[in-house]
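Sorry to interrupt, but I need a hand with the structure work. Could you write out one complete protein record for me, on any chain you like? Just paste the record in under my message, thanks.

. . .
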Amino acid sequence: MQGCLKFGLFNFKHIPRSPTLEDNTMPDYHVLPAQRLTGAVRVTRPVPPKSVTLTSPALDVMTDLRHIHAAVIELHMTMESANTYMIQRGIRSLLVLDQDQALNGLITATDILGEKPLRFIQERRMKHNEILVSDIMTPLDRLEAIPIEEIHHARVGDVIASLLDTGRQHTLVMENDADGKPAVCGIFSLTQIEKQLGTSIPSTEVAKTFTEIETTLMH
Protein backbone atom coordinates (compact mmCIF):
# COMPACT_ATOMS: atom_id res chain seq x y z
CA MET A 1 0.00 0.00 0.00
CA GLN A 2 1.56 3.25 -1.12
CA GLY A 3 2.14 5.81 1.59
CA CYS A 4 1.75 3.24 4.40
CA LEU A 5 4.14 1.15 6.48
CA LYS A 6 3.03 -2.39 7.32
CA PHE A 7 3.95 -3.96 10.66
CA GLY A 8 2.28 -7.32 11.24
CA LEU A 9 -1.48 -6.81 11.18
CA PHE A 10 -1.30 -3.03 11.45
CA ASN A 11 -0.93 -0.45 8.69
CA PHE A 12 0.67 2.85 9.65
CA LYS A 13 -0.06 5.67 7.23
CA HIS A 14 2.81 8.02 6.61
CA ILE A 15 1.72 11.65 7.14
CA PRO A 16 4.13 14.23 5.68
CA ARG A 17 5.39 16.66 8.33
CA SER A 18 5.37 20.38 7.64
CA PRO A 19 8.85 21.90 7.57
CA THR A 20 9.96 23.73 10.69
CA LEU A 21 12.70 26.24 11.36
CA GLU A 22 14.70 23.48 13.05
CA ASP A 23 14.75 21.49 9.78
CA ASN A 24 16.70 24.28 8.10
CA THR A 25 15.05 23.14 4.88
CA MET A 26 12.62 25.73 3.56
CA PRO A 27 13.04 25.54 -0.24
CA ASP A 28 9.77 27.37 -0.94
CA TYR A 29 10.80 30.54 0.90
CA HIS A 30 13.37 33.20 0.14
CA VAL A 31 15.07 36.01 2.01
CA LEU A 32 13.47 39.39 1.39
CA PRO A 33 15.72 42.21 0.20
CA ALA A 34 16.33 44.96 2.76
CA GLN A 35 17.85 48.43 2.65
CA ARG A 36 20.11 50.12 5.18
CA LEU A 37 18.52 53.19 6.76
CA THR A 38 20.39 56.48 6.33
CA GLY A 39 19.60 60.15 6.62
CA ALA A 40 16.27 61.47 7.88
CA VAL A 41 13.68 58.70 8.11
CA ARG A 42 10.11 59.50 9.11
CA VAL A 43 7.55 57.27 10.81
CA THR A 44 4.23 57.00 8.97
CA ARG A 45 1.19 58.18 10.89
CA PRO A 46 -2.36 56.87 10.50
CA VAL A 47 -4.39 58.58 7.82
CA PRO A 48 -6.74 61.08 9.54
CA PRO A 49 -10.48 60.47 9.18
CA LYS A 50 -11.83 61.93 5.97
CA SER A 51 -13.98 65.04 5.86
CA VAL A 52 -17.71 64.49 5.61
CA THR A 53 -20.94 66.38 5.02
CA LEU A 54 -24.39 65.89 6.52
CA THR A 55 -25.35 63.70 3.57
CA SER A 56 -22.27 61.44 3.78
CA PRO A 57 -22.84 57.78 4.73
CA ALA A 58 -23.13 57.31 8.49
CA LEU A 59 -20.48 54.58 8.34
CA ASP A 60 -17.93 57.29 7.47
CA VAL A 61 -18.12 58.62 11.05
CA MET A 62 -18.61 55.35 12.93
CA THR A 63 -15.78 53.86 14.98
CA ASP A 64 -16.00 50.31 13.65
CA LEU A 65 -15.11 47.87 16.42
CA ARG A 66 -14.89 45.07 13.88
CA HIS A 67 -11.65 46.66 12.67
CA ILE A 68 -10.47 48.72 15.66
CA HIS A 69 -10.01 47.42 19.19
CA ALA A 70 -12.62 48.87 21.53
CA ALA A 71 -11.40 51.14 24.32
CA VAL A 72 -12.55 49.34 27.46
CA ILE A 73 -12.13 49.47 31.21
CA GLU A 74 -13.31 47.22 34.03
CA LEU A 75 -15.94 48.03 36.64
CA HIS A 76 -13.61 48.00 39.63
CA MET A 77 -11.10 50.50 38.22
CA THR A 78 -11.02 54.01 39.65
CA MET A 79 -12.57 57.00 37.92
CA GLU A 80 -9.14 58.68 37.88
CA SER A 81 -7.58 55.73 36.05
CA ALA A 82 -10.37 55.92 33.47
CA ASN A 83 -9.67 59.62 32.96
CA THR A 84 -5.94 58.97 32.54
CA TYR A 85 -6.61 56.21 30.02
CA MET A 86 -8.88 58.47 27.96
CA ILE A 87 -6.27 61.23 27.90
CA GLN A 88 -3.55 58.79 26.83
CA ARG A 89 -5.66 57.47 23.96
CA GLY A 90 -7.15 60.81 22.99
CA ILE A 91 -10.72 59.58 23.38
CA ARG A 92 -13.76 60.64 25.40
CA SER A 93 -15.51 57.37 26.24
CA LEU A 94 -14.81 53.83 27.43
CA LEU A 95 -16.95 50.72 27.33
CA VAL A 96 -17.19 49.23 30.83
CA LEU A 97 -16.82 45.45 31.14
CA ASP A 98 -17.29 43.07 34.05
CA GLN A 99 -14.99 40.18 34.96
CA ASP A 100 -16.66 38.02 32.30
CA GLN A 101 -15.92 40.66 29.64
CA ALA A 102 -19.63 41.43 29.26
CA LEU A 103 -20.73 45.02 28.67
CA ASN A 104 -21.99 46.70 31.85
CA GLY A 105 -22.08 50.35 30.86
CA LEU A 106 -20.36 53.36 29.35
CA ILE A 107 -18.23 56.02 31.02
CA THR A 108 -17.46 59.32 29.30
CA ALA A 109 -15.29 62.36 29.88
CA THR A 110 -18.48 64.26 30.68
CA ASP A 111 -19.25 61.78 33.48
CA ILE A 112 -15.81 62.34 34.97
CA LEU A 113 -15.49 66.10 34.51
CA GLY A 114 -19.14 66.98 35.14
CA GLU A 115 -21.23 67.16 38.31
CA LYS A 116 -21.49 63.40 38.93
CA PRO A 117 -18.27 63.01 40.97
CA LEU A 118 -19.03 66.00 43.24
CA ARG A 119 -22.57 64.78 43.84
CA PHE A 120 -21.28 61.29 44.60
CA ILE A 121 -18.69 62.64 47.06
CA GLN A 122 -21.35 64.65 48.89
CA GLU A 123 -23.80 61.75 49.06
CA ARG A 124 -21.34 58.99 50.00
CA ARG A 125 -18.83 61.01 52.04
CA MET A 126 -15.88 59.61 50.15
CA LYS A 127 -12.70 60.94 48.56
CA HIS A 128 -12.33 61.82 44.91
CA ASN A 129 -9.71 59.13 44.31
CA GLU A 130 -11.99 56.47 45.81
CA ILE A 131 -14.70 56.85 43.18
CA LEU A 132 -14.94 53.81 40.92
CA VAL A 133 -15.95 53.57 37.28
CA SER A 134 -19.08 51.68 38.36
CA ASP A 135 -20.11 54.61 40.57
CA ILE A 136 -20.54 57.19 37.80
CA MET A 137 -20.89 55.25 34.54
CA THR A 138 -24.13 55.05 32.59
CA PRO A 139 -25.32 51.49 33.32
CA LEU A 140 -26.29 49.04 30.60
CA ASP A 141 -30.03 49.30 31.24
CA ARG A 142 -29.89 53.04 30.47
CA LEU A 143 -27.98 52.66 27.20
CA GLU A 144 -29.51 52.42 23.75
CA ALA A 145 -28.02 51.08 20.54
CA ILE A 146 -28.86 51.42 16.86
CA PRO A 147 -28.99 48.20 14.77
CA ILE A 148 -26.20 48.05 12.18
CA GLU A 149 -28.84 47.44 9.50
CA GLU A 150 -30.15 50.97 10.12
CA ILE A 151 -26.66 52.43 9.78
CA HIS A 152 -26.04 50.90 6.36
CA HIS A 153 -28.45 53.33 4.71
CA ALA A 154 -28.24 56.23 7.20
CA ARG A 155 -26.51 59.59 6.71
CA VAL A 156 -24.29 61.62 9.03
CA GLY A 157 -27.18 64.02 9.58
CA ASP A 158 -29.37 61.16 10.77
CA VAL A 159 -26.78 60.23 13.40
CA ILE A 160 -26.53 63.84 14.61
CA ALA A 161 -30.33 64.08 14.86
CA SER A 162 -30.38 60.87 16.91
CA LEU A 163 -27.66 62.10 19.29
CA LEU A 164 -29.33 65.46 19.79
CA ASP A 165 -32.68 63.77 20.36
CA THR A 166 -31.26 61.73 23.25
CA GLY A 167 -29.06 64.54 24.56
CA ARG A 168 -26.03 62.24 24.55
CA GLN A 169 -22.52 62.62 23.16
CA HIS A 170 -22.24 58.95 22.18
CA THR A 171 -24.42 56.16 20.87
CA LEU A 172 -23.66 52.49 20.29
CA VAL A 173 -24.27 50.30 17.24
CA MET A 174 -25.34 46.67 17.61
CA GLU A 175 -25.21 43.51 15.51
CA ASN A 176 -25.75 39.82 16.18
CA ASP A 177 -22.53 37.83 16.50
CA ALA A 178 -21.83 34.39 15.05
CA ASP A 179 -23.88 32.80 17.85
CA GLY A 180 -26.83 35.10 17.23
CA LYS A 181 -26.19 37.08 20.42
CA PRO A 182 -26.21 40.91 20.51
CA ALA A 183 -22.79 42.56 20.37
CA VAL A 184 -21.61 46.16 20.18
CA CYS A 185 -19.90 46.62 16.82
CA GLY A 186 -19.59 50.40 16.58
CA ILE A 187 -19.69 53.75 18.36
CA PHE A 188 -20.72 57.21 17.23
CA SER A 189 -19.13 60.17 19.00
CA LEU A 190 -20.41 63.72 18.57
CA THR A 191 -16.85 65.00 19.06
CA GLN A 192 -15.54 62.76 16.27
CA ILE A 193 -18.35 63.84 13.97
CA GLU A 194 -17.53 67.49 14.67
CA LYS A 195 -13.90 66.87 13.72
CA GLN A 196 -14.85 65.28 10.43
CA LEU A 197 -17.46 67.92 9.66
CA GLY A 198 -15.01 70.68 10.50
CA THR A 199 -17.52 72.54 12.66
CA SER A 200 -18.99 72.40 16.15
CA ILE A 201 -22.50 71.13 16.76
CA PRO A 202 -24.43 73.30 19.26
CA SER A 203 -26.71 71.39 21.62
CA THR A 204 -29.84 73.24 20.57
CA GLU A 205 -33.07 72.48 18.79
CA VAL A 206 -32.43 69.99 15.98
CA ALA A 207 -33.85 72.09 13.15
CA LYS A 208 -31.93 75.18 14.27
CA THR A 209 -28.75 73.16 14.69
CA PHE A 210 -28.89 71.79 11.15
CA THR A 211 -29.42 75.29 9.79
CA GLU A 212 -26.35 76.50 11.68
CA ILE A 213 -24.25 73.54 10.55
CA GLU A 214 -25.24 73.88 6.90
CA THR A 215 -24.58 77.63 7.01
CA THR A 216 -21.13 77.03 8.52
CA LEU A 217 -20.23 74.35 5.98
CA MET A 218 -21.13 76.63 3.07
CA HIS A 219 -18.62 79.29 4.16
Notes: The beta strands are 4-7, 10-13, 63-64, 72-74, 93-97, 103-108, 138-139, 145-147, 170-176, 182-189. The mean pLDDT is 86. The chain has one domain: 58-218. Residues 58-218 form a domain with the CBS-domain fold (CATH 3.10.580.10).
